[in-house]
Amino acid sequence: DGRGRAMESYVPYGEESTIPVASVQKLAGDTLIRAAQRGRKVTVDQKKFAAYVYDLVDRHDGTIPDRSLAFAPSTRDLAKVTNTFYGHRKTLGAGYRYDIPEYGPGLGFEEYETFPGVRTEWVNPLPGDSFWYENHSVLNAGRTDFAAEMRSAELDYRPGKEYRAEWFAPVTRPRLGTGYWGPFRTVNNDMQFNITPWTDAGEGHSGSMPEDEYDTTSYAVHQGDTLIKKGAGRAGYAWDLSPQKLPYRLVIDSVRDAETWKSSTRTHTEWGFVSGALDPN
To answer: How far apart are CA 101 and CA 57, in angstroms?
Structure first.
């Protein structure tokens, strides 16, 4: 007996169980109990990574149902998503699809995935202004941080429709998306920006490499030909700007290890724009 590979969170934080612990559904649990009572040896096969996923939400707003909560939609009630994950070598990752209700944040945590690969997923539409949000990450060698993280925009699915999504597909480059907060100027004559330099080719995606971005990414803000601010990382700010409408240029440089990532190992992007004081009202 000993600790296994499962995420074991059945004991107080900081403590470890002496044997592997896993939760199962009631019907499977009843079968295991009967087998144990008869003294039988039970062999369990583990499938570490899911080949298919069901993301289903059954909401009951403003009421406590007086009927069974069993939820068994048919395939015509669901959207079919073919998720393709790219990569030039096998690597461990994590990801999740969150349902974001209109009244607050979504709940969940990323689960282990393996890249490259293809997975079939079944998703039901959400009511009202709720939406689905998805992100996937490549873990670093120590599995302690995200070497690369890719975030989606707001996702909406229709029943009976088929969708395709691609993650970590080339060409990787800087691009703005709604998964991260974006550039803005305030009435106090300052601007803030957040450029995601490692975004894949997936529609609506935005991506970064949070593990070492302050070592591998830098920015510089110019007003005309004058450098007014520079720093490390993908996000920064510039204070005390002129209220006049003037030309600006934001330069982002980022590099990553060629042996690890193989392609798109260096990016240089310049964003030119005109900015002036905002109406305080």
So the answer is: 11
The DSSP line for 181-194 is ---EE-TTS-EEEE
Please state, in angstroms and rounded to a whole number, the distance separating the CA atoms of residues 157 and 80.
9
Q: Give me the chain's average pLDDT, please.
A: 91
pLDDT tens by residue, 248-275: 999 999 999 988 898 899 999 999 999 9
| Nearest C-alpha neighbor of 183 from the set 220, 236, 231 | 236
Domains 52-167 and 184-275 share a fold: yes
Domain ranges within the chain, ordered by starting residue: 1-46, 52-167, 184-275
Which CATH code is given to the segment(s) 184-275?
2.60.40
Q: Any idea which fold 52-167 has?
A: Immunoglobulin-like (2.60.40)
Q: Which two tokens stand for residue 231?
A: 């720093």
| Entry pTM | 0.84
What would the pLDDT profile of 177-215 be if each residue is shown by its tens digit?
999 999 999 999 999 999 999 999 999 999 999 999 999
Residue 95: CB atoms within 10 Å: 21
Instruction: Determine contact, residues 246/275, Cβ cutoff 8 Å.
Output: yes
Dihedral Cα 247, 248, 249, 252, nearest 10 deg: -160
